[in-house]
Amino acid sequence: MKKIFYLISLFFSMSITLHAMTDEEKGYAINREVERRDSGFGDSIHDALMVLRNTQGDESKREFTYKTLEMTGDGDKELGVFHRPADVKGTAILTYAHGLKPDDQWLYLPELKRVKRISTVNKSGPFMGSEFAYEDIASWELEKYKYKYLRDEVIDGNDCFVIENIPAYEYSGYVRQVEWIDKTIYQPRRIDFYDRKNTLLKTLTFSDYNQYLGQYWRAGKLEMVNHQNGKSTSLIRTNYRFRIGLTESDFMDSSLKNVQ
Amino acid sequence: MLTPYTRQILQYSWWTVILSVLLVMAASYGIQFLDFKSDYRMFFSEENPQLLAFDSLNKTYVRDDNLLVVVTPANGDVFTKENLVIAEKLTKALWQTPYSIRVDSITNFQYSHAIGDELFVEDLVRNADQLSVQQINEKRKIALNEPLLINRLISPDSSVMGINIVVHRPALDQDKETTEAVEFVRNLVNTLKKEYVDLDIRLTGSLILDTSFAESSKHDMATLTPAMLTIICLTLALFLKSLWGTAAIIAMMVLAVTGAIGLAGWMNIAFSPSSIPAPTILLTVVVADAVHILTGYYSALELGLNRKNAMTDSIAVNFKAILFTNLTTAIGFLSMNFSEVPPFQDLGNITAMGVGLAFFLTVTFLPALIMLLPLHKGRTGIGNSRTLARLANFIIDYRNTVLFFLVVITIALIACIPLNELDDEYVKYFDDSIAFRRDTDYTTANLTGVYRIDYSLGTEIEGGISDPTFLNQVDAFVQWYRKQPEVMHVYAVTDILKRLNRNMHDDDPAWYRLPETRDLSAQILLMYEMSLPYGLDLNDRINVSKSATRVTTTLHSISSQQVIDLEERAQAWLAANTSAIKHSGGTGATLLFAHIGQRNITSMITGEIVSIGVISLILILVLRSVELGLISLIPNLIPAAIAFGLWGLIVGQVGLAASVVAAMTLGILVDDTVHFLSKYQHARKQLNLTPEDSIRYAFATVGSALWITSAVLIMGFSLFAFSSFKINNEMGMLTSTIFGLGLFAEFLLLPPLLLTLESWKSHLTRSSTYHH
How many CA atoms lie within 13 A of B556 on its CB side? Predict the structure, then answer.
């Protein structure tokens, strides 16, 4: 009961402050609140299943485990380990996100038994052949975008802020995104991606939200539809665990060989 | 029955004119829905199995409709700072092309290289303005040694470069989308040309092909139809010797043509280069009806009848012939519905509708209008011609010799039909007046081909493309293909894998080979894909389950038969040398066009048999004689056969047009026969003349008329020789040859045949009387 009261009062105080702002400030403020609510989780791990579909109706599956270490003052560190398809089993990708600077990235190829540092500014290409780009999956950092509040809108029964995000980092595949942020849980419900010629490219919808540690909301299902090529990808995230005691030593390029 | 009807029409001539004009105007109102098709796929029916195979490939990978911008710098070398700046700028600007999903050029080529354990994946040329001469030379070396670039986006002498834009139209309003994309690129190119005056820029690709179809249609519509109308005006004025009469007929024909186009609009039939001849053909084939009515009317006036009686008389005399000749013409065009090629169905249907309208107007609007026009006189018919009389006598005297020579020549020419080779090279559909043809020829000569064959090489297993055996066989196929003389370029993922394998081994050239294990291939592909930017991924080369890969071969400008032969060799090679590859035929627009001629002929054979059947039934009915009906088919079928024989001897190559001309001309040719034979029968039965005298009579009465209608037909159809579109061009030349030959057959072949038939019949009657 106390909590509800707290939420309601917070909501009202937010809406009062939001009124006096420009759309840009309002957009930023909402996203700062998103960041505030999501900070402090420490570390997390989950399993991911990707189902890729082409217009022919063919399906293909990818599986990986994803670990995140929350960093203060810099972007998060992330480690993905692939399980499926079998021929890439054990391949691991380590990323140090850096907000506006290009991320650091290493890949471990079990067949070569070597860690390779990848030097590229590209993160807009398809992630494992799916309709997700790496930039869609990588950790979100507040300073990566310029924001503009557009309007309020109810989608699928959820009251949302609609905000335009303009990538502030170079080499994004998008000229802008339009994001629906749920007013209750301060998490995205939907993102429309616009390509460099400003036409709608993809729509990502988030569903099956669960709350962890009484605070952190995570979507269990992400559905990406590419409007231009008709292909789509579902990303199912299961088995979320938080604060399992991951440390920086688990996210070292030298430790990549031992991730199995 | 007929006369009371005519009297009503003439009685209420105002009403008749107004009502018929209103009716036609309602039909013409459909012109606002008129559309021009701009999609090369219009030539293929939805059931075409080759189109289905091509669509399935497109769905598995990416449909690669494209625009290719071909840039030739004046200094003859792409690798200068200034030219690379242009290339980089243009590449970036072209990403703004509406519906584009991918842009490839030498500047944004994703060049991968390694330093120790660090892998770099980056644009081959970025910030060109900051490059040193040495760096530029380095880029040149990389580009010219890159199998993915050379002969595709850069010429081996580095004088010409290409920027390829893949466009994915949502197809909600595809013609509009095509125009949007093409206009955008054209404007961009024009702006660039203003800035860099000595830059040579050309455009080709499937979207330009699509646009060229629409542009060629509009061009033909704007030139050929008015030209035909002018020719007809002059011919009519000269022939009828009456301005009022000419004006009346022209008014009627304009109504018929606009009505037919309007009906096409109502029925959502979009015009295409192959259906654009419909209005012109219509003008040509319907003029005869009106002339028959008017000459009949003028001669009745001459005999002293009043206007109404003269017209009633003329309609009574001509109605049957007009009805049946229109019917056979319509049937000939309707039989084009059997065609495999939808635009030919459209051509047939639009013309057939127009013929129907023209018939309607000939028996309503035209006679009523004449009543409203000032009383005037014109030519009453065609007088006897001495030349024709001499011709008749000559044929009668030397019938056996004439017949013998004709049979020999016919057989000899028919034997030449197999000399025709089917050829549908879609670039050559257009003549040099169309920019697409010039630019594509330039591109093929200087950079890369536009003819392509696509292969999807697969395994049954998910992820199976990483299997070393499979990859080695794909590579062997690629190497085999590169050795074929018809081939300019082969685009395959194996080249990328070899380069990546080298990158993984400190860029040691000795490792420029396919990875040895399946897992390694899969892992380095995963790594590479992770490093690619938006739009430049491998999804156009590898399917989602990584069980199949696409190999694209680019060919020189070669004939349809050479394309088919090459593909057959490729299939034979695959069958003999690969065990790990799931078999798949080549596909793509080039092969679709290469096969369409044959497919269309096969489908039209049924159409022609049906139309021959129906038309001969009509002939039997009209002539009320089975043997006359059947014998009259001979002079109508032989001209087409001879024309193809001649064509085989003189030209040798024939495209899509070939398959429809026979069906199209048959319905028109029989008109002459109907007229000739009705006169002949009239002479035999009513006038009780001998067969020889009946022939003379037929010559004298309809000979000149046939001469003139044939002349109009030949003029009308040979106009298509001026079309910029080769299918129409060939159709025009073939049909006008057929009409010319048809006239000869009517004069030279039919009479000897009739005489032979008569002598056979009398022989039979005599011998049967003898036996009794």
Answer: 11
